[in-house]
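Per reviewer request, we include the raw input and output of the structure prediction for the construct analysed in the revised manuscript.
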Amino acid sequence: MSVALLVVAGFAVAIAGGATYFSSRGHGSQKSAQSTPKTQAARARSPFRGHLPTEIRGVHITEGLASIPGRIEDYLGLTSHGMNTIELDVKDENGYVAFTSPNLPALARSTGASRPYYDAAKVVQEAHRAGVYLIGRVVVFEDPTLTAADPELGIQSRNGGVWKTSGDLGWANEYDPRVWKYNVDVATAAAKAGFDEIQFDYVRFPTDGDVAAMVFPHKRAEPRSSTIFGFLSYAAHRLHKLHVRVSADVFGLSASRDLGIGQSPHRIGKVLDAIYPMVYPSHYNPGEYDILEPEAFPYATVVHSLRDFNRQTRGEKVHIVPWLQDFTIKIPYGAEQVGEQIDAARALHAHGFMLWNPQGVYTQGVLQHTSP
């Protein structure tokens, strides 16, 4: 199956089901020594169920795409093009949970969040049969479904009611332990279904809308980075018992300076197995890293960002796996631009890369890209 053929067919079908295709997520190679059989036999057994690829080469699938019959099988066919990892939405920006299961928390059912977009156990079985490492994405604090059904779990507005973003989306309260438990309970259901890794997204404080109007019940006198670290520590403690890896998405600039949203790679790197920085060159302002137009210089932009992540996590076992841009904003992006980002990730000794395209269409050949 050609990568270029993975167009968004069945758009109307998925929209009718309530799923979203589009997301605001934007929101020299490392060489390993060859081990002798004796060394391999002596190596400690991994506590995790899934075998981690030596180099992650992956793509993202939304709930909407996963709901189209045969579409997941199409993506699994990309293994012949070099893919070895898929990140699949478990809970998305709408707050929708993509499957039904008795293991899901009662809130997922009572709020209408749980929806039958795919059979989790079946997807896990098919992915593992194809030799694919399967990551479940759980969007945490942006959750209009939860906050509409149970407003007291949301950030409140000083003007009354649940606070919402400029896009009219409600956010759950970062300080509320019930919100923490709900999201980790959803992640637990995915882990029990067989996912290899749980990746938390939107694990931060809001950035858009009238942020001055936000009111946080249960607010604690602590830095925001402590709050986010606390949530991820809690999540890792619970999920590691189920033998899954735990990771988080962060902004590409979060290692370069404090963005005021609670994302501190230095801190969360102490409890996570992997950090996935979103280093899309189009998302950096002109002049960042002294680059006149970062989008026009994908290699340099990714190198500068990942260098800061390496510095922030030095001495920790956490892996850095960047999300790379495989879409066009102003400057057309194709195999050359995506390949430069992959080269940069390898030059900075990342543990692989993930490609992001909001429509789920990935550039021909890039998953097999070889670096000089």
